[in-house]
Amino acid sequence: MNRTQAVEQLPALRRYARVLTGDAWAADDLVQDTLERACSKWLLWRTGSDLRAWLFTLMHNLYLNQLRTQPPQPHLDLDDLHDSLQGSAGMGDDALDLERCLQRLPPEQRAVLLLVTLEDMDYGDTARILGIPVGTVMSRLSRARSRLRLLMERAPAASAAPAPAATENHPDHGASAGQPTTLRRLK
Questions:
Q1: H helices within 70-115, ranges in order?
Q2: How far apart are CA 30 and CA 18, in angstroms?
Q3: Cα angle at 171 between 166 and 176, to 5 degrees?
Q4: What pLDDT, in 10s, does the model give residues 142-157?
Q5: How far apart are the C-alpha atoms of 69 and 114, rounded to whole Å?
Q6: Residue 75: strand, helix, or coil
Q7: Rounded Cα gap, residues 90 and 42, in angstroms
Q8: Using N-to-C axis directions, what is the helix angle for 93-104 and 134-160, rounded to 10°?
């Protein structure tokens, strides 16, 4: 591993860390910790193997370790606070809704969704990074897409009217108001 190879991976590492943590400062710290771990463990990386997958594996494991060491945080449901929060409608609302909805996914589903869609990793690489079988990757990806679709459909409706019943937005029951459901690409 040389410096140039590692530097080429920085944008992808930062992007993944930012969505994993939901915070720019924590993401930068996670990337730094990942690079420090990579430098101290560089002899464990096999020349010729996928450096990107190895770095993502290090990052994912560090993130899980950080989660384990933090005290449990009380769950704060943003939908309950929606009426008390003020904000202007703007072009960035969809991006904010997407980020908020991504943070509401279970961490294991969010990790799979981000690696496959945001980082364009195949199922095999994603399975190796997360240390799970390929079938579990496909299952978690399917559940994450369905949940994200449901959350994104609720997000615009939350500002105009109460959220519709869960069965109306369930993928098996069709989209609300007869419109097809589309999932926006994360890139």
A1: 78-81, 93-104, 107-113
A2: 9
A3: 65
A4: 999 999 888 888 755 4
A5: 23
A6: coil
A7: 45
A8: 130
Q: What is the three-class DSSP state of 10?
A: helix
CB 51 within 8 A of CB 1: yes
- The dihedrals phi and psi of 55, each to the nearest 5 degrees, come to -65, -40
What is the model's pTM? 0.57
Interior/surface letters 70-96, b for 16+ CB within 10 angstroms, e for the rest: eeeeeeeeeeeeeeeeeeeeeeeeeee
Report the C-alpha gap between 4 and 101 in whole angstroms.
35
Low-confidence ranges of the chain (pLDDT < 70): 1-2, 73-96, 155-187
Q: Which amino acid is at 185?
A: R
Q: Which amino acid, one-letter code, is at 45?
A: W
CA 98 to chain centre: 10
What residue type is assigned to position 163 of the chain?
A
Crossing angle of helices 10-21 and 24-40, rounded to 10° = 130
**Count of positions (residues) in the chain:** 187
Nearest-angstrom CA–CA distance, 34 and 50:
16
At residue 143, the pLDDT reads 94
Q: Which residues, 6 or more positions from 132, have their beta carbon under 8 angstroms from its beta carbon? A: 140
